[in-house]
């Protein structure tokens, strides 16, 4: 009756991981009305800086009302369905992208394609770069939505690049090669690598070394690199030195403009995380490859950005002073919130992966597992939802190949709610079987000691 | 160089490297001519007038007035700012409840409140363009096909086929009976597909029709429903022009009304595609709707809507606007009135110089019959005439072949995307051209009737050749999500 696509479950929403969402929806925390409800910490949303956006709007009514020189702009906007996008909006978006990268890279608005969110951007790129049955390599852990965005309608297979906690989940040459071999074994044609930088769920920005491994890999296999840089504006520790865009990394290699590596580099971006506007569906693809830009532009017909929204953006982002201040203040608030979460978890004896970006922490709860298995992770997760009352994301939903890691979001709740959550975690951690805890801790401590003695961050591990 | 090029080809998918987007068609000449020489009343009064765009500009000032009096509708205004945070953060693919409620109510009003729509079946999409693609993804596998009566909107070739791999099989409707959809034509197309081993998954109708401007009568709709029920295939009804119906003589019947009254029909086969682009004139806001009577399709399409949700800023605006009952009723009535006036003025103007149009009672265009101006009844002659219309008459109209019309010589002319003055100028250009160049003088009614009932013969081979070729409507590289 229906298509195969409609009848299968590649949309990924039948996964048992939606249990947490359902539980939250049935019993949502509210400070006044439901103080014992479940706190939502599984949503990577940024709710920290709306006041900045609101105050700009309040003080800039003239800029956003639909008038130009006294003439109403309504008709022009209502009719504007050109898939090339509102020129002013694209101009401002590329300027924003450059600013986020410390102006070390310049972007051309003609190479930007607007899409209905980065969800549409990633799917569209897959339609452009791969045939059904082809594969993309993705470092684990990765954003669960990629399973839907890549596999469902484009029919692209995902082959994981296994990253491990032993080196802070950094991408290594051997992991890349293993993934490629794995694809060969499965008779899959690898079309590219999709990275998220900064990473979701890790919250880390990629190092020079990792990016160079990727570039070398792309050169040797002649495959694409799609870099989802949706969290690039959330890098909260000296971003100009710690975040390196794929574009910058390629530039730093002094690769000739005519080298076709350039035609295989594509960036995905969105305003959902950096600017807290996920509802407005503002995504984009940036590519140096003219044919990709051309095809993606035509495909954007299936999900254009509302002209009403494009206009708002063109006005808001043209205020350079506001944008710079916003980004700066937003990062400051994110860092503060992250530190609150990290220190609160520390009190509970729980460590996080050292991170410098994102709206979440990658939390190590391996010591709370009864066994080093995904079953145990699931049991722990259910406990955290129903007994502790927190909806957090288990690492297995992000395809992490080590049990015991969880993603906990910190930017979508108030400070008060975060304190409540931390208190609950503390009580829970203390109540866990002390004997078991001791045993686990001893083995973990041993690992920590060896890590600490080799390096203080995960950035400088040897590759082999 | 050739090696480098073919390497480039391999870097991309087959979908991206191919021409399934439909924009490589030779019919771009009209668009290029318009874009390089666009009419402007003062800056370029001799430029090409755009009559290939099915847009509705007739009631925008009503909306502008409403917006001025309802600043709360914008979350950026001082009055609406308190809602900014909630709306900016809202990405739930179910859509704002008030949006779904308002759209469901609007759809009911457009159909004279003869039916009601369930807000829980309203699914968002990236315009009707996104809606059609999503529905195709839900109902058909690559290689499966939909039956589509000719002539049809050229964008379907892209929307239903490009990324989905679904095929379109034409149901030949021709000028011999005013392009009416007959059961014989449906059955013939279905049989032909079976013989070619093509699996038909459904029928796609646009009602009211683009490019014809006519709507299906109750009996034909019922027959189509029986047909799809019997074959157990889907029926997708694109009702995007529902509110452009301006006739008082007979009433537009929506498939929703047929379903309401026909209990024998398997409702799981019925799906409606809608949008605000034509009825309200808001193509830029990308408000596409899928309304399915099949729960599984609603569920699947809703998940797919993640790839093309309506901006929550726009959802909020539309919800506020369409909840204003008084405004909506006034708008629907006034819009129909203005379309009727424009239609009357244009058809009269054309008839004065011997140009007949298919009798229509909806849409933002006329289906103009120029076959009597063709040197011979071929598509080449149609193209030649079209070049003349663009370059000498200086109008961009859409040739019937781009709509897969089985008879050469028909052209779609849009009349709702310009002001009165421009329309007068367009008519005067046509008049001048006809009086100068065409031997037939002022016609009598008899002659027009004779022309319309002329049974055009074409060799069946030429027809098959044509049907096989990827004819597309001129899609401007600069504009157009939907013409």
UniProtKB/TrEMBL annotation, chain A:
Domain Aminotransferase class I/classII large positions: 39-425
Enzymatic class: lyase
Known EC number: 4.4.1.14
Top-level lineage group: Eukaryota
Pathway: Alkene biosynthesis; ethylene biosynthesis via S-adenosyl-L-methionine; ethylene from S-adenosyl-L-methionine: step 1/2
Keywords on record: Ethylene biosynthesis, Fruit ripening, Lyase, Pyridoxal phosphate, S-adenosyl-L-methionine
Gene Ontology terms: biological process: ethylene biosynthetic process; fruit ripening
One family name in Pfam for this protein: Aminotran_1_2
GO MF terms, alphabetically ordered: 1-aminocyclopropane-1-carboxylate synthase activity; pyridoxal phosphate binding; transaminase activity
CC cofactor: pyridoxal 5'-phosphate
Catalytic activity, as annotated: S-adenosyl-L-methionine = 1-aminocyclopropane-1-carboxylate + S-methyl-5'-thioadenosine + H(+)
Family affiliation: Belongs to the class-I pyridoxal-phosphate-dependent aminotransferase family.
Stored PANTHER family: 1-AMINOCYCLOPROPANE-1-CARBOXYLATE SYNTHASE 3-LIKE, BIFUNCTIONAL ASPARTATE AMINOTRANSFERASE AND GLUTAMATE/ASPARTATE-PREPHENATE AMINOTRANSFERASE-RELATED
Primary role: 1-aminocyclopropane-1-carboxylate synthase (ACS) enzymes catalyze the conversion of S-adenosyl-L-methionine (SAM) into 1-aminocyclopropane-1-carboxylate (ACC), a direct precursor of ethylene.
Record's protein name: 1-aminocyclopropane-1-carboxylate synthase
Organism: Citrus x changshan-huyou
Taxonomic placement: Eukaryota, Viridiplantae, Streptophyta, Embryophyta, Tracheophyta
TrEMBL record, chain B:
PANTHER family per the UniProt record, alphabetical: 1-AMINOCYCLOPROPANE-1-CARBOXYLATE SYNTHASE 6 (PTHR43795:SF6), BIFUNCTIONAL ASPARTATE AMINOTRANSFERASE AND GLUTAMATE/ASPARTATE-PREPHENATE AMINOTRANSFERASE-RELATED (PTHR43795)
Pathway: Alkene biosynthesis; ethylene biosynthesis via S-adenosyl-L-methionine; ethylene from S-adenosyl-L-methionine: step 1/2
Keywords: Ethylene biosynthesis, Fruit ripening, Lyase, Pyridoxal phosphate, S-adenosyl-L-methionine
Recorded GO MF terms: 1-aminocyclopropane-1-carboxylate synthase activity; pyridoxal phosphate binding; transaminase activity
EC class of the enzyme, as a word: lyase
Protein name per its UniProtKB record: 1-aminocyclopropane-1-carboxylate synthase
GO biological process, any: ethylene biosynthetic process
Co-factor(s): pyridoxal 5'-phosphate
Gene source species: Citrus x changshan-huyou
InterPro entries, sorted: Aminotransferase_I/II_large (IPR004839), Ethylene_sulfur-biosynth (IPR050478), NHTrfase_class1_PyrdxlP-BS (IPR004838), PyrdxlP-dep_Trfase (IPR015424), PyrdxlP-dep_Trfase_major (IPR015421), PyrdxlP-dep_Trfase_small (IPR015422)
Top-level taxon in the UniProt lineage: Eukaryota
